[in-house]
Amino acid sequence: MRAIGGSAALFILLTAAAFTTSMGDRLHVIRYGDTLWDLSTLYYDNPLLWGTIQEANPLADIHNLRPGETLVIPLADGQVISQGGVYSSTGLTSSRALLSRLQLETTGMLTGEPLSVSGHVLETNTDENDEFGDEVALPGDELALDIGTDQGVEVGRVYRILDVGEEVRHPETGDPLGNVVRVAGVCRVVETYNTTSLAILEHGYLTVVAGQILVPYTSYAPITVSGTDVVDGLDAYVVAFQDRDALKAYAFDVVYIDRGSSDGLRPGDLFEMYQYGHEVESASGTDVVTPDIPICEFVILDTTLETSAAMIYANSSADLVDIGDRIELVRRQN
Length: 334
Hints:
It is built from 4 helices and 18 strands. By secondary structure, it is mainly beta.
């Protein structure tokens, strides 16, 4: 097990604090992935005020901020510096929410448990009459649902549309883990009948077709990365990808692992993958083991009882993630 050191934890606490100068300005330690546009959104709730930050700092290249350097965040005319908001970041030292709500709501899951199904998409593009228009729905298209007022459906009710995909087996044991369930879209009911309804596809993330299942829409709370270094190791395996066509996973891709809430995992927990050391002969002729090299980090987005969805949010090497790769828990939520 490799845990994040105490100095890193201290750095997290320091960068999370609201540093304020005597003039009312604030200091920001640049993290990987920061841009002036994003910082202006974070501190002023207005991305167009990025020039205010630029003018207050001697920046050689505003497009390549250097992690570790400090920026002055000045008070802007008519603006109040916020204490942080929901904002996308890629750094472990972030004091802000890590992921957008949209990213969380499209995560999907790997599960062997029965889903609590409200209904199904009965027909797509019910407002179109051409022979090719009713196979695939796009945002703005009309859907027919096989549930209505008899099932308690009301106008304005919102559903998440799920696509049940391939069965997944454990890469080591071969035991079945369940099926990948992907979020195809979100629809809103606009008209109801006794046993059917009409809905508008408001968001489409994958192909929406007849037969896909409906579950009630629920909003996700933001996930922040903070917690305590782990001393008791917990290994997990990458068992599937959110992208059904992917051969390998890259930074910001979502993967599914074989550990879940029954293992104590919660959204925001952090895993790390290593290139493990191997035995070599030193110049003195003795055998030594090379150090374990971190390859990438994963943040848990959502959990079922036995599995979790995680996003690769930091990658320190050119190595990509394969199904069957082993990862280690390094940080738990407080």
